[in-house]
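Retro notes, structure queue

What went well: the backlog is down to a handful. What didn't: a couple of records were mislabeled last round, so from now on we paste the full input next to the output in the thread. Example, using R-spondin-2 from Pipra filicauda:
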Amino acid sequence: MEMLTQNRWKKQASAGLLENCTGCILCSEDNGCITCHHRLFLLIWRDGIRQYGMCVHTCPPGYFGVRGLEVNRCTKCRSPSCESCFSRDFCMKCKDKFYLYKGQCFRQCPPSTAAQPGTRECQETCEPGPWSEWSACTHENRTCGCKWGVETRVREVPEAAREEGAACPPLQESRRCRMKKHCPGDKTEPRNKSKKRQKKPKTERHVGT
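Corresponding output:
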């Protein structure tokens, strides 16, 4: 794929040479463009011992544009696995089978990161700290007076993971809990004691003799 891209640009450059160095201010018959109009970038590459120059509106993959006082140049990204870079050492997009992480391209994402196939980037993974103790069992900010309430616990996220915007697992959990039905100091109604039935005294029958 890279060779095809380079060959395409070389063919365009050759066509430019045949067209009397289109876009050039200063041109060499053997080496192509030497200087370009102020809006264009000078792209230079080597083919064996020969060097070719071409004036382009945008730099090809693997290069980035640098504007100067006298000439704007297409400068090659330092990493061969970089498709588009902001500066020589800071990549913005990697080639196929590579993943971008902090301006660098990797075949495998570094530890504590996870590959994102859709964007071909390495994203920080979130590893929260330990769970806290369960909170008091409450219902509508009350700790008593109801049969059931809810208690919660939380865990913290490292500062680095927050800054990177990493996707984190749940940081809070809740569960149902039983509350004290009566609060201290509440007056409770006395239970009605059922009256015991009074036993009637047994009457003994005397049989007359």
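Agreed that this is the format going forward. Reviewer comment attached to the example: The helical segments are 2-18, 159-164.
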